[in-house]
Structure formats: structure tokens, C-alpha cells
């Protein structure tokens, strides 16, 4: 392992701006030590609103603001406001935080980093939600010391979802051909000529969508795990990329998939390239393009 790769493991073993537990760190000390146990804790705290029917939940517009929570500290503040039980105690589905796959992944990451375990949320596309399509999704990569490799973990896939989606793999070890990192999806479209319209979510599909996930995934690798509908830089709209931008995205995708020997290079690219770096003000597409001011620790400024 070279110096950059060793630095990467140290880097991902410590919290970032969104994964710092703050005052909740003491509460997390009583949680299970094993990865499966931690995933069950996360599943008992968060519920995905798109899948509410699996838990007998009707849509609740008054709680949609929970989806806009970016930091784990804010998420746990809301969890405990809904139900003050210990974090290890599963909540009834109606008493859980409304969150997307990104919230599940970031929360698991935060709990692992609080114990010094290297972990990092990753943005990409899942194969199990829609036949023959690749659906926008996040997982958490966890360092497996025995394998000396990163393992993909989907903390969202509880028993009801595994049954509904016909999951035939271990969510604690998601196969690399079942969840494609954003860079893999980009290369499939650019090199293997896959149809970009097969990548996205709902009616939002195309190469512009894959481009957005490539930028988000690089930001997540730099501990800036923003929301799936946050936009900035070259993914602030649905424009068609020119040759120069395509070259930048080809390089970004390749770096995001490379070994941690490129860790310093990845961080340098994310921090310096105007189209990739996170500004102080971003666009929230879920809130009709509203401008959102980020904390100084998140922005590359």
C-alpha cells in the first residue's frame, strides 16, 4: 500500500462535515459492533417515502422537509424528536425519519466512522428496482480488512424490500455488477455505448443524469455527501456536454474508479476544477431550483 492509499483509509475513518455525530456520538457507543447489526439500527431509524406502501404508510406532505436534511446530526435530532427511545430501539415505521437511499448510506457511514472504521457513501445506479434499467441509488462502501478491499453495503435493503425486489444477494456485500458506481455507468455509456436513457429515476434519464451522479460521487469521495437533487457546476442544468467537458468527465469517472493510490489526485481534482468543486450556494432541484447556502466546511472555498 502506497502513502496515498494509506492516507485514504485514515481519511475515510474520520467524520466529515455531514457525518460528524456531534452530541449524538455518546448515544452511538451503545450500538451493535457488527455490520449487520448497525444496518438493522439504521433501518429502524429511517424509512424511504417511495416505499412507504411496504410498511403501511400513506404519503405525508407535512414531513417532506425531512428529506432535505443533509447532516447526520440534523437527521438524529429529528429522529429523537419523533421518538426519544435509544437509537438501538427500532421505531414504528410512522415514527421513523423520512429519508432516501443517500440518508441510509450516510447514516451508516457516520456510525462506522465514529468507531474509526473506514467508510464512504457512493453514488451510482442499482439494477434491482426496474428490469433492464439502472436506477439512481446510493450505497456505503466499507473497508474489509480481511479482504483488503472495499465492500459495497446497502443499509436500506431490509426484509420487506428484499422480498419486494426479489433480492438474491447479501445486502452486506452487494455484487459490483448489481450496483454500478457512477463512473462505471458513465464509462458504459461513453465506451460501451449503453443507452443513457436506461440510467436515471422516474422520467429523469439520460447522459446528463449520469453526468450529475459522476460529479456527486466525486464530491462524496471528498466527504461532501450532498443530496441527490443538489446541483452545482457542470450539473446545474441538462445541457449537452461539449468535447472539453466530456474529456473532464471521462477523467473524473476514471479517477473515481481507480485505486486509493490516486486518493490525493481525486481530492485535488474535486477541489480545484470549477465545474466539479462545491460552491457556497448550490441549486436544490427538489425545491424548484431554490438557492441553498451551504456551511463553510462543505464548500470548496
Number of helices: 10
Q: Approximately how much helix is present in the residues?
A: 25-40%
Using the CA coordinates, give the radius of gyration. Answer: 18 Å
- Order of secondary-structure elements: HHHEHEHEEEHEHEEHEHHEE
Mean pLDDT: 96
Strand content: 15-25%
Number of structural units classed as domains: 1
Structure summary, number of beta strands: 11
Give the biggest sheet. Answer: 6 strands, mixed
What is the 3D shape?
A: globular
Which structural class best describes the helix and strand composition? alpha+beta
Low-pLDDT stretches are none
Q: Give the termini separation.
A: 31 Å
Describe it for me?
With 301 residues, the chain is an alpha+beta fold. The protein has one domain. 35% of the residues lie in helices and 15% in strands. It has helices spanning 3-12, 25-28, 35-45, 72-82, 101-113, 159-165, 182-190, 207-221, 243-257, 263-272, and strands at residues 46-47, 97-98, 119-126, 134-144, 149-153, 179-181, 199-201, 204-205, 230-231, 281-284, 290-293. The strands form 3 sheets. Strands 3, 4, 5, 6, 7 and 8 form a 6-stranded mixed beta sheet that branches. A 3-stranded antiparallel beta sheet has the order 9-10-11, with no helix packed on it. It has a two-stranded parallel sheet with strand order 1-2. Strand 4 (134-144) and strand 5 form a beta hairpin. Helix 3 (35-45) packs across helix 5 (101-113). The longest helix is centred in the last third of the chain and has 15 residues, at 207-221. It starts with a helix and ends in an 8-residue tail after the last strand. The model has no long low-confidence stretch (mean pLDDT 96).
Amino acid at each position: 500500500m502506497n502513502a496515498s492509499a494509506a492516507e485514504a483509509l485514515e481519511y475515510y475513518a474520520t467524520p466529515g462535515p455531514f457525518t460528524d455525530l456531534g452530541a449524538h456520538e455518546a448515544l452511538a457507543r451503545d450500538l451493535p459492533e457488527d455490520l449487520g447489526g448497525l444496518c438493522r439500527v439504521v433501518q429502524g431509524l429511517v424509512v424511504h417515502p417511495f416505499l412507504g406502501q411496504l410498511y403501511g404508510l400513506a404519503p405525508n406532505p407535512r414531513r417532506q422537509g425531512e428529506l432535505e436534511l443533509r447532516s447526520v446530526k440534523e437527521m438524529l435530532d429529528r429522529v429523537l424528536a419523533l421518538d426519544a427511545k435509544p437509537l438501538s430501539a427500532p421505531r414504528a415505521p410512522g415514527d421513523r425519519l423520512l429519508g432516501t437511499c443517500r440518508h441510509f448510506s450516510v447514516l451508516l457511514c457516520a456510525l462506522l466512522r465514529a468507531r474509526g472504521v473506514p467508510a464512504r457513501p457512493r453514488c451510482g445506479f442499482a439494477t434491482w428496482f426496474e428490469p433492464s434499467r439502472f436506477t439512481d441509488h446510493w450505497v456505503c462502501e466499507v473497508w474489509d480488512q480481511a479482504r483488503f478491499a472495499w465492500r459495497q453495503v446497502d443499509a436500506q435493503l431490509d426484509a420487506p424490500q428484499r422480498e419486494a425486489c426479489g433480492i438474491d444477494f447479501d445486502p452486506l456485500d452487494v455484487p459490483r455488477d448489481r450496483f454500478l458506481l457512477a463512473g462505471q455507468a458513465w464509462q458504459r455509456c461513453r465506451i460501451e455505448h449503453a443507452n443513457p436513457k436506461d440510467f436515471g429515476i422516474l422520467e429523469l434519464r439520460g447522459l446528463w443524469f449520469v453526468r450529475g451522479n459522476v460529479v456527486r460521487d466525486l464530491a462524496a469521495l471528498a466527504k461532501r455527501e450532498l443530496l441527490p437533487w443538489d446541483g452545482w457546476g457542470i450539473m446545474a442544468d441538462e445541457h449537452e456536454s461539449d468535447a472539453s467537458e466530456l474529456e473532464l468527465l471521462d477523467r473524473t469517472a476514471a479517477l473515481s474508479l481507480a485505486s486509493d493510490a490516486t486518493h490525493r489526485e481525486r481530492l485535488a481534482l474535486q477541489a480545484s476544477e470549477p465545474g466539479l468543486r462545491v460552491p457556497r450556494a448550490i441549486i436544490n432541484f427538489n425545491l424548484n431550483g431554490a438557492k441553498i447556502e451551504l456551511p463553510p466546511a462543505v464548500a470548496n472555498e
